[in-house]
Amino acid sequence: KLAATGAAAVLSDAALEPHFLKFVADYGKSYGTRDEFEFRFAQFTKSFNYIQEHNAKNTDDAVLGINHLADWTPEEYKTLLGLRIPKNAKQTEKIFSAPENLTDLPAAVDWRDQGAVTPVKDQGYCGSCWAFSSTGAMEGRYQIMTGTLDSFSEQQLVDCSKKEGNAGCSGGWMDQAFEYVEKNAIETEASYPYAGTNQECNFDQTQGVDKVVSFTDVKVNDPAALAAAVAEGPVAVAIDAGSLSFQLYHHGIIKHCRHNLDHGVLLVGYGKEKKDEYWIVKNSWGAKWGEKGYFRLLKTDKDE
Questions:
Q1: Transmembrane segments in this chain: where (predicted)?
Q2: I need a surface site. Which of 11, 145, 154, 243 has the fewest CB within 10 A?
Q3: Domain locations in the chain as residue ranges
Q4: Could you give the CA distance from residue 227 to residue 271 in angstroms, rounded to a whole number?
Q5: Is the separation of the CB atoms in 111 and 235 below 8 Å?
Q6: What is the pLDDT of residue 10?
Q7: Active site residue 126
Q8: Would you call 201 a catalytic residue per the annotation?
Q9: Which residue in 129, 160, 169, 257 is the catalytic one?
Q10: Which of 54, 126, 169, 263 is catalytic?
Q11: Against a cut of 0.85, is the pTM above it?
């Protein structure tokens, strides 16, 4: 995988073609026509050159690298970003705020080590990130409560939570998914498997595992409150994932962010590397993206 740092260099098409052919082989890509091959090669070339330039200029930031999204157009990439917060959305009446004594918080938290996080999933070509964020939070809290880690059904949320305001693969919001599961027990992945497309609701009440009793929103722009919340269990969160640098993230701590929330992910902990305190976040684009499906994000954005 391409993830080296150093001086940027723009390569000719002839020099880039071996990299592209390796990419095609590594990620099992298949293009039906020569025109499609050339089109995807052009997209790959843009990604390759952007990676080279970013890694050369931003040695203190996360490292970018080639992944399965390197031949996607910006329009195709945007289909993955399915967070749709309603214009009239309000936080829940009860807001989770930081405790008075922050010294009681652990120095580091990682719910993967406690068995409260399922393996990384892949939303495919469906804008269902919000559903994966939601199930991840429910899976974590269910494991902490019962000791059993079940993989819950994103497809149930995609198909069945439209009355709450969600729109399946066209987008949704985690709060509305939780509202649905307050009324309807969530099934497991095994009983209601993921299809990655909009379907008719096929909910089987007899297969439901558990319901959401209640949920609470964390106070906005309050890292201490968020740290306290994730110290209790995984948290569904929203981020801005609209940049090419996020699309091509490979490893390291992301230190520069934008603030147009468009993607639902799962916060599973926090830690520290040298002087940098960071969040540990699970994505839903498969284990070949980022740090085995995860990314790390600086707790305090350097752009703020």
A1: none
A2: 145
A3: 13-57, 75-298
A4: 10
A5: no
A6: 60
A7: no
A8: no
A9: 129
A10: 263
A11: yes
